[in-house]
Amino acid sequence: MKRFLNSNKIINGFYLLIHGCFLLSFLLVQGCNNAKAISIDASSSAIGALLSDGNFGVFGNFGDAGGTSPAATSPVNVSLSGYVNVTSNDLSLTLSDSTDSTTQTLALTANGSFSFSTELTSGDSYSISLDSYTQGQSCSISTNASGTAGTTGTATIVCERQLAIAAGWKTSSGTPVLKLFGVDHSASPYSVTQNLSLTVGGSPSSVDPELVWNGTNYLLVWKSADTTIKGQYYDIRLTAVGTAFTIYTGTGVTIGKVSATYNPSGEFAVVWTEAASTRATKYQRINSTTGALVGSATTIVSSTVTNFYNADVIWNGSLYYAVFRQSTGNFTNNSLTIYSFTTGTATSVKTYTATTGSDSLPLDYPSILTQGSNVWLFYSQTNTDGSGNISGSTLKNSKNFQTTPAVMRTEINPYGCGPEGGGDQYMISSAAIASITNLLISYDSVCADVGGTYNEVSDLPVTISSGAAGSATDYSDSEIGAGGGGPSPSQTMGSSITCRTNACFISVGNESYDAIYLFDPDFSGNIVGGTSQIYPTDASGIQNPVTVIQ
């Protein structure tokens, strides 16, 4: 540290002699020869006081040539949430200081709290713009995109994954079709960002797509033939990752509905049913990073007399649950059964049956969901009059496989359709977590009679704490062009639901109008902004459409 002691220094044209007195070039002060010498640290408040002008007008400000104190500065802070940076594309921001016309950029690689590198002079006005980021998600500066340095709070940037919809159907000429859509739901009207035509690879009776997100990639699963299940990974932008791979090939079998779920330990599980001389329900585990098969296809249950249909699967945090319909004879003995597994042999968990008179009622189209520590099961029960005549259908739910499932809604003759002449009636459901208080269920009510097959698409909120169902909202008549004066001509084959921050979304294909639709109910089931037609009328026809939304 420098010290001024018994030395002469020239400062701003003045001589400073420290022997306890000052000597100016134009002023001679007598009587200082016997003054006591002192030592003053240059960093001390004393020397600071001596050298400041102190309004004396004699000395200049040695610390600031302009004669003023440095201006105060303030950081500009930002927070980022919901961002998925899986393609090495940072989220880029630009800060523009409108007071001094300067700019600076900030690249964010992960969620968290950050600051621009250079602070702004307090009081300066500024704005923040959002530049590039990984596509397949929607990002916006929700609060404090502009303000004043030192007074405006943190700029909040929120991102959310866009919708991904897989749809499979056959054209009027019988050609199988597989489509993958990306939909930006951040503004109304919604915009289709991707419309991909995918190679099926064969001629299955039903393409039957399944789509699962694991936080990094989507796994798309479909049937390329009645004997073969295929898989393909896609990143958040719906860009293919690697090539399509075979999950399972059987000999002399007809594969039914295919379902899949994600296990955060690093794998997917795919479950399906198959008809053959020996019928079965099976599962196959898949490495969620490489797509490599983990082990071989494993039989959950098999039989030479029992038929299996419409399996669904979920991971509950410690094991997988698979649920599917069983029937023997000429559908005279029906049940819905649940098995659990991790690896190897599956374990029977629960079986549900229902009867009316001498009739064993079909329990079918299960949809299973994990919510916190709860496992929810939704399914359709086809009702009869006890003498074999179908009288309607009921949507039921079982929370944690309760002994007596709860009734959610019963349909007797939707759109005036009463099952006649050996017709059928059932509900195909899909479930999603809407909020901390509600689940939301979408379902098709399917009714067949002598005039044809008719459907209505509806949703139904369920209170998590009690399991009680709220009021249903029916969309078919007002939203997808159902006709009046009799049964609806809408023909759908199962809607699919997912939820985001502000609303839920239901995808559904309509065979009557050859189109794919998107509904946007709020968490209580009421439609928010109307219906979007994400795939317009197909001149080639849409027969037996199946959609799944993530």
Explain the overall architecture.
By secondary structure, this protein is mostly beta strands. It has two helices and 44 strands. The strands form 13 sheets. It has a four-stranded mixed sheet with strand order 9-6-14-12, with no helix packed on it. A four-stranded antiparallel sheet has the order 8-7-11-13, with no helix packed on it. The chain has a four-stranded antiparallel sheet with strand order 17-16-15-44, with no helix packed on it. The two termini are 67 Å apart. Residues 1-65 and 482-488 have low confidence and may be disordered.
Please give a quick description of this structure:
With 550 residues, the protein is an all-beta fold. It folds into two domains: 73-159, Immunoglobulin-like, CATH 2.60.40.3050; 162-549, 7 Propeller (Methylamine Dehydrogenase, Chain H), CATH 2.130.10.10. 2% of the residues lie in helices and 53% in strands.
List the defining traits of the structure above:
mainly beta, Methylamine Dehydrogenase, Chain H, Immunoglobulin-like, 44 strands, disordered N terminus, 2 domains, four-stranded mixed sheet, 550 residues, 2 helices
Strand content: over 45%
CATH architecture of the largest domain: 7 Propeller
Report the strand count.
44
Q: What is the strand arrangement across the widest sheet?
A: 9-6-14-12
What structural class do helix, strand and pairing data support? Answer: mainly beta
The CATH homologous superfamily of the largest domain is called YVTN repeat-like/Quinoprotein amine dehydrogenase
Low-confidence stretches: 1-65, 482-488
Please state the CA-atom Rg, rounded to the nearest Å.
35 Å
**Main β-sheet, in a few words?**
4 strands, mixed
Number of helices in the DSSP assignment: 2
What coarse outline follows from CA principal-axis ratios?
Answer: elongated
- The first-level CATH class of the largest domain is given as Mainly Beta
Helix content: under 10%
> What distance separates the N and C termini?
67 Å
Number of domains: 2
Any idea of the CATH topology of the largest domain?
A: Methylamine Dehydrogenase, Chain H
The mean pLDDT is 85
User: What's the assembly state of these chains?
Assistant: single chain
Region (Disordered): 473-494
